[in-house]
Amino acid sequence: KKSLISRGPEAEKRLLSDLERFKTGGLADHLIETESGLKLFFHKKTDAYKPKTGDKVSVNYVGALMSGQVFNNSFESGEPFEFVIGEQRVIEGWEEIFTEISEHSSFTLIVPSEMGYGASGEPGKIPENADLIFYIELEKIN
To answer: Is the pTM of this model over 0.90?
Structure first.
């Protein structure tokens, strides 16, 4: 728990560094883009099991607006964030991408607003029509 909390600032720094590299074109050769417009860049890619609908996944993540303003850092809680794929508890971009990511992988994900919080945003946290960027570690699949 404590080690997870202590990794929060490092994860945030990595995310903001990737955001800067994305904005300046430095990630262009490394980005993978899905048909729906999600963009991702792997830090660590494994050949382990990929989750499917109904699987519970445990992830650690930092989320930010494209301005660099961080709106969530799950590392700070000391516990991974858990959700079941297909239960629609997370944004559409996450529902889609997690069936393509192997356990123990880490990556940066850019989510267009229509795959995120869309026109409504998340009052007080995420403006309307905001594209989002996440640094994510897929820790475990149950």
So the answer is: yes
